[in-house]
Structures are given as structure tokens and as C-alpha cells.
UniProtKB/TrEMBL annotation:
Source organism: Mesonia phycicola
InterPro entries: Ferritin-like, Ferritin-like_SF
Coiled-coil segments: none
SUPFAM superfamilies reported in the protein's UniProt record: Ferritin-like
Protein name: Ferritin-like domain-containing protein
Amino acid sequence: MNIIKFLDEFTSENLTQKGASRRDAFSTFSSLGKKAAIAAVPFGLATLSNKAKAATMFQTNEAVDALQLALTLEYLEASFYLQALNSNVLDQDNTGMSTAIYEQISMHESAHVTLLEDTLVSLGETPVAEPTFDFTAGGAFDPFNTQGDAATSYAQLLALAQAFEDTGVRAYKGQAGALMGNDDLLTAALQIHSVEARHASEIRRLRGLKGWITQNQRGAGMPEATQAVYNGEENIDQATIITTDLGDGSPFTLDAATEAYDEILTGDESVAIASLFIVS
């Protein structure tokens, strides 16, 4: 199924006029992001394992949907790094550092895919099928140097890696609440989340940037199309505490106040970003 078409269909104002079986199949899904993440899963979920039955049906569905969304994002990252390593664009870095970092991250992302697939199978669920990706985003980018401009392609390769990793960090945070009813699933997600944060910091350092996000700035050289990854990071209200008011004797600057805290991406926001690179 084309996920972009899926999004169009399920954001239609005529959703309530769809057939009853389809409406009922999605009656427990709480967000568009979660719906899109299971686009390739047949209607009618498989029988749940005994472990999954320990949670309520709503909690289980919500947790499964969160894992399917995470798996879709991990597919995207794993595919991106493999294609990057096969493109020779990283040869632009004569130190070999970029290749070494991409090789390590690629192994991590592949391991994340395997863990999420195996976890879903253990729950009696069918993992969402890996989409077909277009990392040019319809021609907006040329990260694999098909146009013969290796320097530009190298810069875009690093920029897209940053965008994908920063998306992953915020997306995992956004889905944590859906896993609160299952300690094992929450632990697994948090273990991946912290590694995604390390990836994001490593890529940003590779690009000569700070290892963290300042306000809603995407960083020098980042394409405007990636701005959605950073929207909302300028928030200074944390649990009703205004972070610019904190500090020992003098308030924190806006930069410092926003760098100290990360924001979530909702399922809807994560899917919108990923869909820029999903063909089917």
C-alpha cells in the first residue's frame, strides 16, 4: 500500500462514511501516526500471545501501533545508511571518519529493525512491511551523487542523517506513553531511544555542530524541507516551569534553556516527515 495514499484516505472528511468493517478495525487507534505505521498490516490482528494479554486490549493495540511506527522509522534509517555506504559519496571525507561512523550506525539500525520485528512477532503481530524509500524526496535532494556533484551530495548525506536521527529521538519520546502499560516494551524502546540520541549527537558533531538542538534551529547547511524535524524545540515551558527563569542568580539564556530539554514528535508529525521519503 502507498503510505501517502493511506494518509490521504484516513485524513479524509468522509472517514466516518467508510464501510463498517474498516471503521471497526481502526476503532481503537488513537492517532493518525499509529494508523499509518501499520498500513501494511492486514485488517484483523493476529491472536495475541499470553504475555500481550497481560495488558488491556486498548493498551496492547496502542503499544503495537507505537512499535510499528518505530519499525517504519528504523527501516528508513537502516536503508539510508546502507545506501550511503554503497554510494561512495562518503569518500569525500579523506579521513575515513564518516565511513567509520556510518558503518557503525548502520549496524545499530539493522539491529534495531531485528529487535522490533522479533518483538512484534512475539506479540503475535505481523511487522509492517518495509516501504520503498526515495531519499531524494522527489528530486529535492541528491544524497547519492546521481548528478555528479559529489561535494553537494556529501553535505546532503550528512544533513539527511542528522534529520533522520533527530526525528528518531523525538519520535521515540512521543510514543513512550503508549508503552507505559508494558515494562518490557518500554524498556526496549528506551534502550533504542538513548542510542538514537547518541547517533544524532555523533552526526551533528561530524557536521561541525553542537551535539544538541538550539531553539528550533536545524543548523547550518540543513535544507529548509527538514524544518519540521525541529519545530517546537523552542519551547521553554517544562511542567509549567519557564526554563529561562531558572539559574543560580541569573536566568538562563533562551539558547541554554532550549538546549537543556528535548521535545516530542507526535505520531502524526513523525509520519509526515517520514512520508517525504516513502514511495510505497
